[in-house]
Automatic annotation (TrEMBL):
This is Uncharacterized protein. InterPro entries: Sel1-like (IPR006597), TPR-like_helical_dom_sf (IPR011990), TPR_rpt (IPR019734). Keywords: Membrane, Transmembrane, Transmembrane helix. Signal peptide: none annotated. The keyword Amino-acid biosynthesis does not apply. The keyword Disulfide bond does not apply. The chain crosses the membrane at residues 20-41. It holds the Pfam family TPR_16. It comes from hydrothermal vent metagenome.
């Protein structure tokens, strides 16, 4: 039923996705509030505007750098507070929430009276939540709720806090938050999530009736997002309660209400399990058939379908199902069991040859498993049934050699006897007689028969064939009950008692030993009988009686080996039965026997483990420490005890002590030389390795980066070839990444790639290194890595997806439009359904525009435009530029109505983008083309008045076309045109438009008769813009003026 257990993970993933979607909405809302407060009165505001512009373009890395630079250069500027908020949110967009939290915490400390302080408090808590620092998140959400009890974000904060407390295993407190949320926002956007969280809280609190009621309410809302999962959780509760019919009904209701939901196949599978549990195999088969329609769970469903057919006696059908399943994929986790069950179905159909072949295949493929032992035995059985006695004997001998301790040995001995009997011969028959009790059957002498029974019972008992032993010895015990203490075979009671004990028939075992002791209380086997009685009473939960018998055994037979061994055995069984309080008492008694006894180390270890089981972690830690002190050289138990000392402190939440204990354990028992491969997989080095690993992780969790780095370094120095080396290196690198030790993280990632190039984490490491190069401005190195990942077939699809999207963005940044086009096409071929696909499509269209492929660019943009409602809801910063590019294409195609349409639609958007002025500029050019010069100048002036356009190339272009309008008119206005051109030249930093404007200034001078000024303008153009396309024209005009 492992699939049912997955519901918890499904719940957490689903809930996190839901919260993330809401989080994006909150960020956008905050930015709208912030943007309205920005002023532009001073020069520093230019830097601020540049940073905000970068943010609005979605270039969050550069935006973060720019905001940091602005804050550093202008620490007392009025916009520092807002800049810090922008910086925090840019870091959030970069998924650097730990950094974002630090920035926002600093903001809260520096600006305690800022009107946006409550927003920042909320965002701090949210960051902690997403970096899984739930302890901090809990406190921060509580602080926000206390400081801002009427804030609009409370609608999100309450369920967030509740979910945080669920993750901290505080369901009682979580329930309170969800209840508050529902009371305050009964129909709010988070109401359904809150009800689901409340149901989950009740479930964790074992308030099942309340949980069921809420799940039922959620499940009845057919349009509710949580309805399907609620229905599954409801069914799962019924299943866990073994209310299988209720579980089936609940799963069937899910299928009926939500027939297209992804959970439907899961429901069919669990319906099958529920029917199977009730032994209603025909119904189970139908459910498993439906479950098998889902490819991912088809192997499991088909396996259980085969077993269901087998349980109904339809072995032929079962064999076909299992055969098809195995041959489809012989490497699945169920392959071994599938092959074995298939073979067994063939055997039951008397297809002995086929069965033998399949059983031997199990032995060959899985030689070290219990299934192999069972299969070898069954192969021998099949050979025997085929009357191939020599082959059967060969298989029996192979079994004896390879699996002498198998659970099948009882049946194997029977088969061995059958084979020997079939072979014939004096020696073989002699052995068979011993096994088949032929001496007992043939003897005519009573004592001989009883003696044979007695010895056969001993033999069978030593062979652990206790059922046969009891059958064999029963005539002896029946006779012994009629006789007195002097009966020759009174010891049969002890033999029978031992077999009953081995079979866990404790009542019968106790009775047999009592019969013996009633006759011979001081007999030769009295100590053994007392031992068995004490064990039997202990196993039946009669601790007082067991203790009394144990005390009698020790006092009456102080030198008997059974006293101490029984005390130890009962102590170990008490521990095995999780009766830790009793095992603590018994191990303590054993320790009182003295430190010089051979069992003292085991007793001390057992006591420590028992205290640990009792959750007396402080006491356990001391006892484990005592073991290490008294037996530091015990190669097997000392490293284990040292490790468990640390674990005990950890459970006691003495984190510093635990970290120290783990560290000390590792240093004390770490190998002097580097361990060989796989060495850490077996005790005692297993405990040494785990101690080092726990030390490193605990320092990491305590944010003691220096100590954690030292611990990881030492661990890998001693275990450089650990099986999970790649995972350790990845973990270590991520520690440094989280601590912003990026250089160290990159160094470790490089080691991972070098030492485990075939690891499935190597591509992630290379991706991280490439992104580090990208952030460091090493575009060539980053690009080379991204290209390598793009072409690496072993790389995860997600890694290749990210790498290829980076290549598109790098090419766009570099304006290498051929690369943009080629990489975008490749990306869209492989990742057309990626969440990044829309943006790549947009970049692709932008590249096509630069190649003047307007028709193809328009096709792409129109597809995006058709999905505008959904894409606008995602708040993608780039998406409104679709309108801008469509307007640009429309003006190229002289589709002026479309130009107006796109510009006005963009203007009407609630979240109008900061680059809207670009659309206005296109509208202005359209009016010029239509010779509506006054309208053009009015529109273009709006571009200049837009604070977002300040000092931009678009503003320079608009200023240029304002000037052009003066010359396009019938009555050319050279004077005003020249003033307008000069503004382009003097105010903007754009070679293209400055040089064009300066040439036009000279043209106006010529038209106005100012030849001298015209010459100066042309000469300035040649000097200041030597690579401009207007230089040849300027030189030509200078020649013309000179003539």
């Amino acid at each position: 039923m492992t699939d049912i257990q997955k519901r918890e993970t499904r719940y957490l993933l689903h809930q996190q996705t839901s919260f993330i979607n809401r989080y994006v909405c909150l960020v956008v809302l905050l930015l709208m509030v912030l943007s309205s407060s920005v002023g532009w009165a001073d020069e520093a505001a230019d830097d601020y505007l540049a940073a905000a512009k970068l943010y609005s373009k979605g270039r969050y890395e550069l935006a973060a750098d720019s905001f940091q630079s602005f804050i550093k250069k202008n620490p007392k500027h009025s916009k520092v507070a807002v800049a810090q908020l922008y910086l925090g949110n840019a870091l959030v967009r970069l998924d650097q929430r730990k950094k974002a939290r630090a920035v926002l915490r600093k903001f809260v400390g520096q600006f305690p009276t800022n009107k946006n302080r409550a927003d920042a408090l909320y965002r701090i808590a949210e960051c902690s939540y997403f970096i899984k620092d739930y302890s901090a998140a809990e406190k921060e959400f509580q602080r926000f709720l206390k400081k801002a009890p009427t804030h609009e974000f409370i609608e999100w904060a309450l369920p967030y806090l509740g979910d945080t407390q669920i993750r901290l295993n505080h369901p009682k407190q979580a329930a309170i938050q969800f209840q508050k949320s529902l009371k305050k926002f009964p129909r709010g956007r988070m109401a359904e999530d809150s009800k689901f969280g409340l149901a989950k809280s009740y479930e964790m609190l074992k308030q099942i009736k309340k949980a069921i009621k809420l799940y039922q309410e959620l499940a009845t809302r057919s349009q509710g997002e949580r309805a399907p999962q609620a229905q599954v959780n409801l069914a799962t509760i019924y299943f866990d309660q073994k209310k299988y019919n209720d579980a089936i009904a609940a799963y069937q209701l899910l299928i009926k209400r939500f027939p297209k939901n992804d959970l439907v196949p899961f429901a069919h599978l669990n319906i099958g399990y529920a029917w199977y549990q009730q032994k209603k195999h025909t119904k189970a088969i139908q459910a498993f058939k439906q479950a098998a329609q889902k490819k991912e769970q088809a192997p499991v469903a088909n396996y259980w379908m085969g077993l269901s057919y087998k349980s109904t006696g339809r072995f032929s059908v079962a064999a076909k199902v299992l055969k098809k399943l195995y041959e489809a994929d012989s490497k699945t986790p169920l392959a071994k069991e599938t092959l074995y069950q298939w073979a067994d179905c063939e055997l039951r159909q008397e297809h002995y040859k086929k069965a033998k072949e399949l059983f031997l295949k199990v032995v060959s493929k899985y030689p070290k498993t219990e299934a192999a032992a069972a299969s070898l035995h069954m192969a021998g059985e099949a050979a025997f049934l085929l009357e191939k006695t020599d082959e059967a004997e060969k298989l029996v001998n192979q079994f004896t050699r390879n699996y002498p301790e198998s659970a099948m040995r009882m049946h194997h001995q029977i088969l061995n006897a059958r084979v020997l009997n079939a072979k014939g011969g004096k020696e073989n028959l002699s052995q068979a007689i011993q096994l088949f009790e032929s001496v007992i059957q043939q003897s005519t002498i009573s004592r001989t028969r009883f003696l044979a029974r007695y010895h056969l019972t001993s033999l069978l008992q030593r062979s652990k064939k206790d059922k046969q032993a009891i059958v064999t010895v029963t005539p002896l015990t029946n006779q012994a009950k009629k006789e007195g203490a002097g009966y020759e075979f009174v010891d049969a009671f002890v033999l029978a008692g031992n077999s009953f004990l081995n079979l866990k028939k404790y009542k019968e075992a106790n009775g047999m030993m009592a019969e013996y002791l009633s006759r011979l209380p001081k007999g030769a086997l009295a100590d053994q009988a007392l031992s068995t009685r004490a064990i039997a009473e202990a196993e039946q939960g009669e601790k007082e009686t067991a203790h009394s018998l144990l005390s009698k055994l020790i006092s009456d037979f102080p030198k008997s080996k059974w006293g101490v061994s029984t005390l130890r055995l009962i102590a170990e069984r008490a521990y095995g039965n999780k009766d830790f309080a009793w095992s603590t008492q018994l191990f303590s008694q054993l320790i009182d026997k003295g430190t010089k006894t051979t069992f003292h180390p085991a007793a001390l270890s057992g006591l420590a483990w028992s205290q640990f089981g009792e959750k007396k972690y402080e006491e356990a830690a001391k006892t484990f420490a005592l073991f290490v002190k008294q037996y530091p050289d015990n190669k097997q138990l000392a490293p284990e005890a040292a490790f468990m000392q640390g674990r005990s402190y950890k459970e006691a939440r003495r984190i510093d002590s635990a970290a120290t204990a783990f560290s000390d354990a590792f240093k004390k028992y770490a190998p002097k030389k580097a361990a060989s491969p796989q060495a850490e997989q077996k005790p005692p080095l297993r405990y040494v390795y785990l101690a080092g690993l726990q030390a490193a992780r605990m320092y990491r969790n305590q944010k003691k980066t220096k100590e954690a780095n030292a611990a990881y370094n030492l661990l890998l120095e001693k275990f450089p070839q650990a099986e999970s080396l790649d995972k350790l290196l990845d973990e270590w690198a991520l520690l440094n990444y989280g601590a912003e030790n990026f250089e160290q993280a990159d160094k470790i990632f490089r080691r991972l790639i070098q030492e485990r190039p075939q690891s499935d984490l190597a591509d992630n490491a290379l991706l991280s290194l490439a992104e580090s190069d990208l952030l460091a401005g090493k575009l060539a190195a980053a690009k080379a890595s991204f290209i390598k990942l793009k072409t690496d077939k072993r790389a995860d699809a997600v890694v290749r997806e990210v790498a290829m999207s980076h290549l598109v963005s790098i090419a766009t940044e570099e304006q290498k439009w051929e690369d943009v086009r080629d990489n975008a096409k490749l990306f869209l071929k492989h990742f057309s359904k990626s969440r990044r696909a829309d943006y790549v499509q947009f970049q692709y269209a932008e590249a096509l525009l630069h190649f003047q492929d307007y028709a193809e660019a328009k096709k792409i943009l129109i597809v995006l435009y058709a999905r505008r409602k959904a894409l606008l809801e995602k708040k993608n910063v780039w998406f409104p530029r679709v309108w801008v590019l469509l307007a640009e294409i429309a003006i190229k195609n002289k589709e002026y109505d479309d130009v107006v349409k796109y510009v006005e639609e963009l203007r009407a958007q609630e979240d109008r983008p900061t680059y809207f002025y670009q659309a206005e500029e296109i509208l202005g050019r359209m009016h010029i083309r239509k010779k509506e010069f006054a309208k053009a100048q009015k529109v273009l002036q709006r571009v200049l008045d837009d604070k977002n356009a300040r000092r931009t190339e678009t503003a320079a272009k608009s200023q240029f076309f304002i000037a052009e309008c003066y010359l396009y008119q019938k009555k050319k206005d050279y004077k005003n045109a020249q003033k307008a051109y000069f503004k382009v030249y003097s105010l903007y930093n754009s070679t293209e438009w400055q040089s064009a404007a300066l040439f036009q200034v000279g043209q106006c001078d010529e038209a106005l008769g100012n030849r001298k000024k015209a010459i100066e303008s042309y000469q300035d153009l040649i000097k200041e813009f030597p690579k401009s396309k207007f230089v040849p024209k300027a030189k030509k005009r200078l020649v013309a003026i000179a003539q």
